[in-house]
Automatic annotation (TrEMBL):
Keyword hit for Cell membrane: yes
CC annotations in GO: plasma membrane
Protein name (database record): Biopolymer transporter ExbD
Keywords: Cell membrane, Membrane, Protein transport, Transmembrane, Transmembrane helix, Transport
Keyword Phosphoprotein among UniProt keywords: no
Subcellular location: Cell membrane
Molecular function terms, GO-annotated: transmembrane transporter activity
Organism this protein belongs to: Ferrimonas aestuarii
Amino acid sequence: MARKKHASAADGAEVDMTPMLDIVFIMLIFFIVTTSFVKESGIDVNRPKAQQASKKPSANIFIGINEAGLVYMENREVDIQRVRANVERMLAESPEASVMIQADKAAKHGIVVKVMDQVKAAGINTISVAAKEG
């Protein structure tokens, strides 16, 4: 008879893991939803050096301009006239977004100004231009 009591006490010592798994799953969903994803421009550029270059908080929207004057956003080439539409779409996803233009030092400044105009027309007034310290 004592043997049966001992066996039933061992059965009652199990821990139910379901509530803990529910909490972990909810936390995982929370972190996935609240994470902001950075979309790089997709190209490597040789940035110009600037004496007054300073570190700024990271931007959410990156626009790359290579030495040939081609504009890249999200790892793909974009026509200059389509920059505004792309920035507006990204701005709808993230209303507090800021723009970083990564222009190659050999890129013509006229193209950089056209891209800046497209960004301003999309509704973003704060534009940063990437440079190397030095």
